[in-house]
Amino acid sequence: MAETTLRFVPHADLQALDPMGSTADIVKMHGFLIYDTLYGLDETFVPQPQMVKEMVLSQDRKTYRFTLRDGLKWHDGQPVKAEDCVASLKRWAARDAAGQLMNRVLSEMKVVDDKTFELVFKEPYGLVLESLSKVASNIPFMMPKRIAETDPFKEIEEYVGSGPYRFVKEAWVPGNKVVYEKFADYVPRSEPASAFAGGKIANADRIEWLVIRDQQTALSALLGGEVDVWENPSLDLLPVLQATPSIKTETVNKTGRQALLFFNHVIPPFDNPKARQAMFWLTNQTAYLQAINGNPDFFRTCASFFICGTPMETDAGLDALKAPNPEKAKELFKEAGWDFSRPIVILDPTDESVAHPATVVTVQAMRDIGLNVDVQAMDWATVLKRRNSKEQTSNGGWNLVHSSVGGQVVSTPVWSITYSAACEKGIFGWPCDQQLEDLRLKWAMAEGVEAKKAVAAEYSTRGFETGHHVPLGQWTTYLAHSDKVSGLLSTNDVPVFWNLKKAD
């Protein structure tokens, strides 16, 4: 039987390989290919066991005992053991926002035997399975103990998982191609695939990610049969794709995406909350959405940190997003003591279809009120590395950077590191506010939707006061693929590659 190769054009280049080292969607997609998780979120947002065979909760609801499935192996042929999972969870919890919250009420993680381990809490914590199945970066991917014991804030050097595909490092060409091969010893679950849960059946023998930055080149490759799936075509190409009988278009993430403006909180001017608040008053969401998406049928303004259309949506404290006022923004910069002649550095990923147009809008709005903006062009992969720098702008640092996330990821204050205010242990930009961190834990411990909504409103109000980050609106995108490809799953997040089939 001939080998099946699925060729995929991703939205960006993959350069970072450690899923704990980056929150970028491209790294998360890479992670889901080669690593597995203890639990997976199904298409109805319910956590389902993945690597776990059985979970037993103690009568006092403080101890979770997990037993692993039979037949789990690492890509190097070694069996997956409980000690691997405990080491992986410890590394994840040290780095991830939800893991850090869980750690605050965790007493210990302990290995019982080769297949069994426990999480013991000081008091009942109702978000354990939700945390273990989260799709917001950073994700608790399981790794061998020897790799998981790497310092959480340093890059791993081996990329060995137990997922349905194996990363072929020797075939990796940064900026050009990433290659994965089917892991023959992977034992999928028996349940049907459902988003990030169920049976992860690897139907393709080989997956190649081909980095094609030019939209017309990618379009020609898809129409010519040189590639099978294209992740993020521009909306102006939708009529062409829909008019081509051999091409299908689908929306994988019906919850949508949210654009974001992040600050570097540790160097001027955005070490001052008034300067950060100023950017809220300078934000015209419609202008951003027109630049990013361009089709009102696919976008909506949303004056909420938490994606609109989900239970935690709230505009508490966010009047600035509903009625932008550039003059007020200018006055706040003056109150922050900022010298308007000094340059503000914005990282501009010219090859990224969301962050680049958003950057253009921000730059114009800032220049309109007299700010001096230094736009530094680079590719997205370079931005992902450089945004980790805490240096002054004169030494490779930065002030502002744009990004975007899946809507499900930002539907609560807990799932995403986007909402972290854990200082140097949190998200790039290093927002630092104990009150916000306490509100995140308060939300996690609150019982019932109404109680959680109230805490979300508190977080939102404080989020503006501290100028945590600016939500720029939301939209939906689509994916295009050959009609020879079937089995694409709706995930309400990034696309996944299990269940996909390619006909001859």
UniProtKB/TrEMBL annotation:
Sequence ranges assigned to domain Solute-binding protein family in this UniProt record: 47-408
SUPFAM superfamilies documented for this protein: Periplasmic binding protein-like II
Top-level division of the source organism's lineage: Bacteria
Protein localization: Periplasm
Keywords: Signal
InterPro entries: SBP_5 (IPR039424), SBP_5_dom (IPR000914)
CDD domains found in the cross-reference section: PBP2_NikA_DppA_OppA_like_16
Record-stated family: Belongs to the bacterial solute-binding protein 5 family.
Name this protein carries in UniProt: Peptide/nickel transport system substrate-binding protein
